[in-house]
């Protein structure tokens, strides 16, 4: 039973007779067989295809966007107008950028703390027998398509929000931001709430996975110092999980920025910017594309493609930032765990 | 001994502790108070009394606990109550989503609904069904799968089995980038290439191409993970027997990881089945049955939901159909998910937790 | 500050599995008591019942009494958090908080327990690091991450962290098993110094270590795999290693089994 008796009985590792060097040589020689050559060609070809596809996406979107931009008589980034089929065509994305950013910020502000809370609930607070099934169900909810969230949002959530809107107007209306003029609650604020509900499962899942991986010994270190459960979480769980939570949030943010149908179904859009979040109006990149597409002319479509290109660039930046944060954090918090 | 002064305070290991039912009592009290305040002030929304109750619960338990047990315990309790509140806050909308879809979906969901199209039914009238939409969805998703699986699996094989150097790094990077493409952008790309530049018409196939852009990175990622799990000893054993590398991959590596790869592919299918935006741009939608995905507009389940909602004119019949279609869609996706997870569990190495 | 530990009739479970059965012993203040025995005999489990860490393991449950100077740790109304504050613990693998600096690691326990002035905190950190024989090695890098130290330094950092809150008892769960011989020696020397101030209980796999550092030694054994571990005997270390009263102890010490 003792370690001492274990050591001599350990058999020589079976992998020992096949060290790495001969394998590489074999692989190199193997590549000259016709079968190997074809197979390598196919798989490398697929890789190249993926690269070509990405290049094509960038090139064709830019090409169509440039056609539209060359006809545009307004400033593409600052104009509040969207009239690409007018004579002369005038359109700009300022309203869309505002709506996209605002609704995503609201969504993140609501979803991230709650998601972290649920993740902690599953890993550290819920009774053990409850935690597993809850995690499983939330996992499944992440697969519910956005169109269903949109339907639910438009037909169930919106009617339920009137009370909250009135309330915000009563108590916070003086700020201007929460002023409500009794329209249907189909504003950017509602969009933010719906987006929050939509991205909740994905942020929860990733955070939960990270919290579950916190080494037991770090938690025990805090416990042994006489830390309460919350102090254990603050001292060892949250620092360890921070980069994971950030990347989870960025994943959620990416979804919120690009969400189309749910926004299109809930938002009562118009091409202007309201000081109040509770008043209808505004729009997002993706929603605008879906809503305007049907009646768009050729220039109109190219204009929509141009706005899609902006959305594409924004999501690329968000994803890139997320990856950089994770890469930088890794050295520090992963440590010698 | 600067901190010896502390010792008298902690001469005892006993702190005043509130009983176990304390949290439940405060929760019940908060709910009652929340309801009471709402009733008194004439508030109508469930959201309002729930928020009042949640606030009362968090602050109430902090206040009482801070008085009786001390600041540290109170803070611990606050964290606990916040976590519970977060959980309940999240459960309500998610449960409502599932419940409403079930409740409203079963109204018109029957055999007739599944086997008929909307061909002779106006959007505002009751009747009709989703046969054309199911057909379209199956064809579009099937085509997307046919495109994505070979490309995705082969790319993953390249990355794991061959990939070294700059090309592999570039592919890895751009697969990552591709994962983050919003679905509407994928739709716009096919729109600009296929429809605006090549001047092809709207069709199920155009939608399938956009869907495969969304599906390929998911397949690559999951397949990559699975291939990495195959132990190197297995490859070496096969190579050492003089089996060529490509046969080793086909006969040893892939069969070992086929369960996980299947799971990944099924989850990817589940993900694109619900995509609406690219389908809306490229397949256009129709009320009639079109069994040829390569020409003319088709329908699809998610788009059907959207069109029923958008064209309802406020009539309940269209909403009922939208809910029923949503229920069908969710059921299909959930079955795919459950089967995929079942396969993963069944094929998982026995060393798992 | 050191306190006496009196254990009587203690059983510990993992779910329905009885891991250790009916253990009674006394641990004297200002002494080092070593627990030895074959793997799986429950000595680490027993150690973790002394600061109520056993119950944080899923399914962990304890019956019986552990008196810390007449106060039962398992009595009703006892706050396990307060217990762990009084009974410090050092683990098998060094586990400094990876995101905290050396300084913050040592101060971690203090910051939980109240507000200190910066100068007070500085004093205690310095004193604790000196107490753990680590001050000279880290005084120039107090603000570097604790995970950047060597394994032996990390373990002494963990000891400094544990003694900074001035516990009554210090539990050590195989503190040297992950360390090289030189670091091990440093820790053993340190244990000799610390027993002037604390009651120390150490679990060790290494019998020479038990013989070197401890005043009293307790031998644990189990009848067979799946059976609960039991305390076979506890006596002065010298007696245990020269003339134990139970045959099984002698067999184990002379290497005849285990």
UniProtKB/TrEMBL annotation, chain C:
It comes from the Bacteria. Residues 5-247 form the ABC transporter domain. It comes from Streptomyces viridosporus (strain ATCC 14672 / DSM 40746 / JCM 4963 / KCTC 9882 / NRRL B-12104 / FH 1290). GO terms for cellular component: membrane. GO terms for biological process: phosphate ion transmembrane transport. This is Phosphate import ATP-binding protein pstB. NCBIfam families: 3a0107s01c2 (TIGR00972). Keywords: ATP-binding, Nucleotide-binding, Translocase, Transport. The lineage of its organism: Bacteria, Bacillati, Actinomycetota, Actinomycetes, Kitasatosporales.
